[in-house]
Design goal:
The chain is an alpha+beta fold and 276 residues long. It has two domains: 108 residues, no CATH class; 135 residues, no CATH class. The protein contains nine helices and ten strands. β6 and β7 form a beta hairpin.
Length: 276
C-alpha cells in the first residue's frame, strides 16, 4: 500500500478534533473496502500512547499492532460502518483535562464505547466528575485541576439552567439545561467553592434529551465535608423521584442505586474531599 504524508493544523477543541477524525474514519472505510482487516477487538492490536500526536489510518494500526485513542476510535467506527452493523457510528471527542482530549466511539443509538479501554488503556481512579471514562492517567495535581475545571463548567451550566427551588430560602434547586459533558451518560457529582462556603451539584444526563441534563444543587455548607455529605444525600434521594427515574439513562440509575449502600456513600464523600 503506497502512502503519502500530509499534515493539517486543526484548531484546538473537541468539535474540531471530531470533525478531523471524521475524515480519518472515511479514509479507513475506503481502505477497508480495498483490504482485509480482522475485527479490531479480535485482533492483536493494543492501545499504546504515542509520544507525538500523529493520527494513523487503519492500515498503519494493524501493521504496527497498536494505536492511540484517535487511531482506535476511527478504526472501530469505520469497521462498524463498513460492515453494516452501525452505519451511523462516529468518533466522539471530549475534554478529559485542562489540555487533554479523548476519542471514543458513539453508536447511532447514542451509546458509547471506548476502544482504548477495551484494548489495554488503564483508567485512573477518581477521574473528573467521578465518572468520565477513558481518560489517560494523569498526575494527581493535573487530575485536581481537571476536576475543578469540569466542576466549574457544571456549576455554570446549573446556574444557567431552567431551575426551581427545592426548598424556599435554602439555596437548593433543581434545574434542566445544556450538559457540559454530554459524552458522560452516568450520574456525576462534585463540590465547589461557593462564596464563603461550599456547594455541591448532582448532574443527571437526560435520556434522549439532545444534550440536556438535570442538575440538583445543594444549599451552601460551611466546609468541604458538609458539602460532600449534602451532595451524596441529594444523589441518593434522587432515586425517590419517579420523574427522574423515567428520564435518566440506565447507567445513571445504576450509579444512584449503588449509592444506597452506606459504604459506597462514605467512599464517594471521601473521593469528593480528596480531590478538593
Amino acid at each position: 500500500m503506497k502512502t503519502a504524508a500530509a499534515s493539517i493544523r486543526i484548531p484546538t477543541s473537541a468539535a474540531t478534533y471530531a470533525a478531523g477524525l471524521e475524515g480519518l474514519t472515511r479514509i479507513n472505510e475506503r481502505l477497508i473496502q480495498q483490504g482485509n482487516f480482522p475485527p479490531l477487538y479480535r485482533s492483536a492490536v493494543r492501545y499504546k500512547r504515542e509520544p507525538r500526536d500523529v493520527w494513523r489510518h487503519i492500515g498503519d494500526v494493524f501493521k504496527s499492532g497498536w494505536g492511540d485513542c484517535e487511531d482506535l476510535a476511527a478504526a472501530r467506527s469505520a469497521q462498524l460502518r463498513a460492515s453494516g452493523e452501525d452505519p451511523a457510528a462516529r468518533v466522539k471527542v471530549y475534554k478529559s483535562g485542562p489540555n487533554r482530549y479523548h476519542a471514543i466511539v458513539e453508536r447511532g443509538d447514542g451509546t458509547t464505547e471506548d476502544p482504548s479501554r477495551k484494548l489495554g488503556m488503564k483508567p485512573f481512579s477518581g477521574s473528573p466528575m467521578g465518572t468520565l471514562e477513558g481518560t489517560e492517567k494523569m498526575p494527581m495535581n493535573v487530575e485536581k485541576r481537571a476536576r475543578r475545571q469540569i466542576a466549574r463548567q457544571v456549576a455554570l451550566a446549573a446556574r444557567r439552567s431552567r431551575r426551581r427551588k427545592i426548598r424556599q430560602g435554602s439555596g437548593a434547586f433543581c434545574g434542566v439545561g445544556a450538559d457540559p459533558i454530554p459524552s458522560d451518560r452516568t450520574v456525576s457529582f462534585d463540590i465547589y467553592k461557593s462564596g464563603r462556603g461550599w456547594s455541591g451539584i448532582v448532574r443527571l444526563p437526560i435520556k434522549g434529551g439532545d444534550g440536556q441534563a438535570a442538575f440538583l444543587h445543594t444549599s451552601t455548607g460551611p466546609s468541604k465535608s458538609a458539602a460532600a455529605a449534602k451532595t451524596i444525600n441529594l444523589a441518593t434521594r434522587a432515586m425517590g423521584s419517579p420523574l427522574l427515574k423515567a428520564v435518566i439513562p440506565p447507567q445513571a440509575a445504576l450509579a444512584l442505586n449503588v449509592l444506597k449502600n452506606p459504604l459506597a456513600q462514605n467512599l464517594a464523600k471521601n473521593v469528593l474531599k480528596k480531590f478538593w
